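Appendix B. One record, verbatim.
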Amino acid sequence: MFSIESLILIIPIVIFSLSVHEFFHAWSAWKLGDPTAKRLGRLTLNPLAHLDPFGILFAIFFGFGWARPVPINPYYFKNPMLHFAISASAGPLSNFGLAVISAIIYKLIYSLFGMPEVLNNFFITASFVNLALFFFNFIPIPPLDGSRVFFALIPGMTVEKSIRYEMFGFVGILVIVLLDRLGLPIFETIVIKPTRFVMSLLYGF
């Protein structure tokens, strides 16, 4: 069970990270020609515009989570499948960027002043959470962002077909969760281990 101190540390990181994730979905879609998210007030870093309470709880307790999906209308895009994939990728890539930025700031502070324990824990946790969000969201199962990248690589795939597949995507996620709980370390293999590997590159441990 998490301590009060760790929750005080983790919750703001998760809220900020998910808000950045959704903002970049909205921003990239807007830049590619879809004004839907902007019109609905999602082109913002304000957490109140993005957060899903259940998604936050999952991110805190299981290392992966979600916010309210940014509405994207791919029919505004000049190249619907490609631009759908780009706007989907923008969210998890922003989390990867936050992980790298956290590590850079960590090393800068450490080299100049040393590293107080509270800041040490903050930056390491921020990198870990964002990397976990990056790897989780790039799993190629609908409705995760990785599925839109995967669909864009399939010859002959259309937006209409991909949207139909997304309707059943949560079944795949539930199967993974159930198998993980039954002893098959799926999340450990595809999310936690890659996260730890990149952490070792960023922080040297």
